[in-house]
Every structure is written in C-alpha cells, then in structure tokens.
Amino acid sequence: MEINLRGADKAFTEKLVLLAAQHQAELSVIATDTTWTTERAERYFRSLTSGARTFARLVVVEGDESGCLEADRLRDALGKLNGPSNALKRGVDRGVREGWLPEGIEQPVTAIADRDNPSWHKTIAYQISTENRPAFRAALNRIPGQPAQEQQ
C-alpha cells in the first residue's frame, strides 16, 4: 500500500506509520511539505508580472488583521483585477510544473465573493491566510523595491 500525504505535519505522518505497523501492513509513505516558506514565496514573487506582484504585495502589506484587503482598494491601484489575479494562479501552476513548488500547495491569495449577490460572482476582497502572511512579508523584504512595511 502506498499513501501520498500533502500538507500533513510530521506528527500525523508518524502516527499513520505506527497505525499501519500495528496492523502488519506494508506501508510506504511519501510526505510532501506544502507549506509556504520564505524561499518559496520569494521565488513566487519574482516569477510574477509587475502587476501581479503589486497585487499580491498590497494584499500582504495592506490587508487587515485577517489578511483581507477590499477589492476596491486593489482596483484603485491597478484598474481591472482579472489580469493580475489570473497571473497569481498561473504563478503557482508554473511553480508546480517547473518543480520549485510542490503539487498541492495552496494559492497564497484567494478571492472572497459577495455573499449577498452570489449570482454576480463579484469579488469584494482578496485574502492571504494568517499562516502564510509572515513568509510572504519576509520574502518581500528580500526583494529590492518591494518592502513589506507593517500596516500603520
């Protein structure tokens, strides 16, 4: 039996192996770390177009305590958002395809739709998870001209 684990922590992986051993199962476990690290985030930022990098930087730097930034703020800065937001997804896809991001890694910036008008599919905000935000802040500080200043 072979099990591929993506995003599982080390403790869970060890418990799974012990459980299999208790049942005399032959088990091969391949654990893939899908955590966003500073190095992965930096390479991701550097792979993005200028507009997409600005988009992601604004969400990381200007987002509220939960990592959310209103889409109108992004529209004020960038105009239409479909190009940069699509480039963010393509950046992750490219990283997986080229092997510098693991398969199964989550999109760092996600859209939040207007729940009051679901048929419009209008995005009202974008969010980076609080778990990923520190790695992306640190990555921005490594890139000249892209400082990740703390929100005032």
How would you describe this structure to a colleague?
The model has no long low-confidence stretch (mean pLDDT 86). The protein is 47% helix and 16% strand. Helix 2 packs across helix 6 (133-142) and helix 3 (50-62) packs across helix 5. It has helices spanning 10-22, 38-47, 50-62, 71-78, 82-98, 133-142; strands spanning 2-6, 28-32, 68-70, 109-113, 123-128. By secondary structure, it is α+β, with helices and mostly antiparallel strands. The strands form 2 sheets. The chain has a 3-stranded antiparallel β-sheet. A two-stranded parallel ribbon has the order 1-2.
Give the N-to-C terminal Cα separation: 53 Å
Helix/strand-derived category reads alpha+beta
The percent range for helix content is: 40-55%
Q: Which spans have pLDDT < 50 for at least 5 consecutive residues?
A: none
Number of helices: 6
Order of helices and strands: EHEHHEHHEEH
- The residue-averaged pLDDT reads 86
Beta-strand portion reads 15-25%
Tell me the strand order in the biggest sheet: 3-5-4
CATH architecture of the largest domain: Orthogonal Bundle
The third-level CATH topology of the largest domain is: Arc Repressor Mutant, subunit A
| Beta strand count | 5
Largest sheet: 3 strands, antiparallel
What number of structural domains do the residues give? Answer: 2
Q: Cα-atom Rg, whole angstroms?
A: 18 Å
CATH level-1 class of the largest domain: Mainly Alpha
Coarse morphology: elongated
